[in-house]
Amino acid sequence: MGTRHRGTEDEVRALDAYIKLMRAANSVTARVHRHLAEERLTISQFGALEALYHLGPLCQKDLGKKLLKTDGNITLVVDNLEKRGLVERRRDPEDRRYVVVHLSEKGRELIQRIFPRHVAAVVEALSALAPSEQQELARLCRIVGKRAAE
Amino acid sequence: MGTRHRGTEDEVRALDAYIKLMRAANSVTARVHRHLAEERLTISQFGALEALYHLGPLCQKDLGKKLLKTDGNITLVVDNLEKRGLVERRRDPEDRRYVVVHLSEKGRELIQRIFPRHVAAVVEALSALAPSEQQELARLCRIVGKRAAE
DNA sequence: TACTATTATTTTAACATTAAACTATTTCCT
DNA sequence: AGGAAATAGTTTAATGTTAAAATAATAGTA
What we know:
Two copies of one chain form a homodimer.
Chain A: H1 9-32, H2 43-55, E1 58-59, H3 60-67, H4 71-83, E2 87-91, E3 99-103, H5 105-125, H6 131-148
Antiparallel strand pairs in A: 1-3, 2-3
Chain A binds a DNA duplex through helix 2 and helix 4.
């Protein structure tokens, strides 16, 4: 077991699962995003580009919801993408509170080029599990995530 | 499924498990550490105190290995704990390259007081799963984490 | 219409995080 | 012994991250 805590059986079991979950998420994140360094992209920047690529233009609030990040964080990440010309901010003329973030041509070219590497890295990272185990992992994580997000 | 990617069955399955794993880890981390704000402790600070509490004094290198963080990061986290008088740095007289980090009395009192809350929060976060499911989650995460850490 | 509440974004302060360069110390090897 | 290599820690620069306060714009309501 991964915990040194002396507690009830329930506690030790939960702590063990917790530690393993955290370590798996850490290791997989590091491994999956290793290839991003080549393009000088951070994980957050990649996440934003990917969301815009698959969902189309989004206002910053919605981008934050997708990435589970705060408003202020999105402001900074979009700033840095904008500096590199990978996205464009467009103020919504209908409701001037909204800033809609669009992929630029350069940004689209980049995410199109590197997304296949991302998929390959994810497949590789999970290849130690059989297909049915991957599905079971997804099922358990969905339950845990849902409860914790309440 | 949690992905919009159009790909092979293997790809979609792996991406789905990956997304669920990440979201679960994120949500559980946020939930489990919610109580730390009361004590104005960060997650990293809590992790360092916990490691010192359960493993005894550690040099910064070893602390970094436990927390999976870089040297420079540990320097800062220990700095901030030291400022609050929760830990003490002691240069190893045998090998003056090493700085051994000790819990102070104040630090020990704090971690002893809040650790039970941490355990309770972890148990709560995982309570949506049956005991056997928690064990299965731990098993799958261990496999995935091990592969990714290679 | 005018006031209030809500919503989206930005800003700020504090801490986290990494990579890379740097310092100090020790170990290893010839 | 002496110099090279390895190891522990610090520093720096860039980015991320949050919470909280501040701005700006819109919606709702008396």
